[in-house]
Design goal:
Length: about 450
């Protein structure tokens, strides 16, 4: 009998892994890292309840680490099948997986040098070689083209509008349709298209990241303008931790637009993320996948460059920028301040009251980003406690996740309710709020998935 097992993103927003077992074949939809709370991160080190070698294929909805970042470990542990994804997802995985492996190797090295790990020696979850092997197994397929991934099961990708190449995965087998929602994009955003409408599915997996709230109303950049202007007036740095793909693009788009409209001072903008710089090129090369309402003159590379923008390439340049007291805007990853170059900037700049730190995306529980937003007076970075005197700001309007209203708008396109809608990819309060809303307003059968829960289809 066919079944579905929730191996991640159940009761939390990270670690997306959903195992579809047809009774004959096993297909894993998404293969993400757990992030945030230590108890969640420890799951990355625990063996899966099934052998990776028993999985016949993997299907990726998009290239964010919480959906693809466990792939190298899966391959290292014995998975040998194909990994199906869109062409843009394949491109972006070529950036994020080696970068993730490098960061983990560097974190392990620093832990061993500084001696702040409880493990001797500290080891990375996976290596650069593991990431390289995983990339060899990627199999790109275009949008709106059903493709057999195992005998008797076809998968079709539909544009989700969340990230370049992001998709819903519509799986069909034995006359049934299971729609894996991945992450749902937003409506009327400047860079990516609206999420594709869907009219039916027998079973739906629905993300719930912002299931309990509404995003800030689109203010045409007014609040970002105020934050940038105030930061410039204080004479300090504005540090923007941003997801290297899927958020940097919109941040730069808005900075460029506000500069052009003379609503912010023209400041040096430093993009301190080689991965983000490469990602911008992928966006520029795939303008046919961007929002059709973007002004033609703003398409291509010019949409993602400000007047005084500089890309920081080497680690030496990055450390020079960290040490420099000159004001400017620094965009660096990671978006939740869990790793990467942004940690060096924060470690140096957080004690300075002239500094502004602006978060432009969701901050999961247990991350440094959430800790700072919650008003922490110190944060631990690279084994030491760093005092926080900087101004901490958050701009929710740039989120790439649909809010409750946008989720309901997308669900309104269904001509009939799914037999069951499983809520995933959300924290408990968001999951319960969305469950009550969908069950109450739409009268749908809704179930909040539990970690490692197995349900019959």
């Amino acid at each position: 009998m066919a079944s579905l097992t929730f191996l991640g993103a159940a009761g939390t927003v990270t670690g997306s892994k959903h195992l579809l077992d047809t009774g004959t074949y096993r297909v894993l939809v998404d293969c993400g890292l757990f992030q945030g709370l230590k108890e969640l991160r420890l799951r990355n080190w625990q063996p899966l309840p099934i052998s990776p070698s028993s999985i016949d294929a993997v299907v990726l909805t998009h290239a964010h680490l919480d959906h693809c970042g466990y792939l190298p470990r899966l391959v290292a542990d014995g998975f040998r099948g194909r990994i199906f994804c869109t062409p843009a997802t394949k491109d972006l995985c070529g950036l994020v997986l080696p970068d993730s492996a490098h960061i983990q190797e560097e974190d392990a090295r620093e832990a061993n040098v500084a001696g702040f790990s409880k493990h001797h020696p500290a080891l990375p979850l996976y290596t650069s070689d593991d990431a390289a092997r995983a990339l060899l197994q990627l199999q790109p397929i275009g949008f709106n083209r059903p493709v057999p991934v195992v005998p008797g099961l076809d998968v079709e990708f539909l544009n989700a509008g969340h990230l370049l190449g992001s998709a819903y995965a519509r799986a069909r087998f034995d006359g049934r349709t299971v729609l894996f929602g991945g992450d749902l994009g937003r409506y009327n955003r400047p860079v990516l298209p609206d999420p594709t409408p869907v009219d039916r599915a027998d079973v739906l997996l629905l993300e719930s990241t912002y299931g309990d709230r509404l995003h800030e109303r689109d203010d045409d950049g007014a609040r970002l303008s105020a934050i940038v202007t105030a930061a410039a007036a204080r004479g300090g740095k504005l540090i923007i931790p941003a997801f290297a793909i899927g958020r940097v693009e919109e941040v730069i788009y808005w900075l460029r637009r506000l500069e052009t409209e003379q609503r912010i001072p023209v400041l040096p903008v430093y993009l301190d993320s080689p991965m983000a710089a490469k990602g911008l090129q992928f966006y520029a090369n795939r303008t046919d996948e961007l929002d059709e309402n973007m002004k033609p003159a703003a398409r291509g590379v010019s949409a993602f460059a400000t007047a005084r923008m500089k890309t920081i390439a080497s680690a030496r340049e990055s450390m020079d920028l960290v040490a420099s007291p000159k004001p400017g805007i620094v965009i660096a990853s990671s978006g939740m301040a869990t790793g990467g170059r942004v940690l060096h900037h924060l470690a140096t700049a957080l004690p300075d009251p002239k500094t502004t730190v602006l978060f432009v995306g969701f901050q999961a529980a247990g991350t440094r980003g959430r800790t700072l937003l919650d008003g922490a007076k110190t944060v631990r970075i690279h084994g030491r406690d760093v005092p926080v005197a900087a101004r901490i700001e958050q701009l929710d309007s740039m989120s790439a996740h649909a809010d409750q209203g946008e989720i309901l708008r997308w669900l309104s396109g269904f001509t009939e309710p799914p037999a069951t809608t499983y809520l995933v990819h959300g924290e408990p309060t968001a999951l319960e709020a969305l469950r009550a809303k969908v069950a109450g307003d739409l009268r749908w059968t809704v179930h909040i998935a539990a970690h490692q829960e197995r349900v019959q289809l």
